[in-house]
């Protein structure tokens, strides 16, 4: 920036902040001292209660979250039968999401606790503000003196509202540094001054540093939750897939042996569909295919390999999930990719496998798997 900015400029954000203060000043002048004091107290008490509610809800969610995870884990929630209805499948996905995704679990608990706290404290807030402001009710509402004091109090109220508005803008800029309005907001001289002198010191880096990190992590978990839709979409297992999975794993002893047999089968029987990739890259055409389509045509791309493998693994009672992220392209870069993980009960661990790459080497629980596969928040299972 040039450094020639002033606090007052032609930026719309500057005038919106000033308008908040001016409107509150006008309201205060119109209401007089008693009405303005009551509004100011409502705002202050409400702000204190809101901050307290956030702190208490966050503390409660953090405290309860590990206990909820343990409780859900101890329930040994089984996957619904393939012919179970939508609600059973959706319930399984939601509950396992709460069990497996820590930030998602925290967010849900926080929302529940915060809602309960605000409902309980809502009436108490209004009563407390009314009681505190009662002595001011005896002050006449009209008259030059009363209106002047009302204007002063209204200005104080407007300043608080303007600070809150600026904090919201500050949070937006922190979360979306490349957002459509970020540059314009930051060009406001008044915004920058308030942000530098009040918001940034008051929050101590909470908004500017920690909020974006939390948002990115939460976004990753939401991606994981979104991919769990395959638990519902692919819940019904076609008979031909079930028969094939049972046949492939027949005589295999243990989960690892079954998982390996399915990896070998999918990796050798399914051909990579270069035409599908070309159609998407050149024309934007994308063919969404389910596991049965992949099984019948014997063609697909990485997500189709992964979905078919997951369906066959579930058919023989393996705990499996689809993982999305980035895969090494062999030319020094990475591209969008999908693979699977299977849980081995006897070893108490998840193993990674990539049936799409099976024809290029052994990608079943290989030592260098994480060197070529980067998870990007996507897990379903």
UniProtKB/TrEMBL annotation:
Keyword Ligase carried by entry: no
Entry annotated with the keyword Transmembrane: yes
Recorded superkingdom: Bacteria
Alphabetized SUPFAM superfamilies for the sequence: Cysteine proteinases (SSF54001)
Keywords per UniProt: Membrane, Transmembrane, Transmembrane helix
TM helices/strands, residue ranges: 12-29, 41-61, 102-120, 127-146, 152-175
Family matches, as InterPro entries: Papain-like_cys_pep_sf, Transglutaminase-like
Pfam family, one: Transglut_core
Domain Transglutaminase-like: residue ranges: 294-357
Gene3D superfamilies in alphabetical order: 3.10.620.30
Name of the protein this chain belongs to: Transglutaminase domain-containing protein
The organism of origin for this protein: Cohnella herbarum
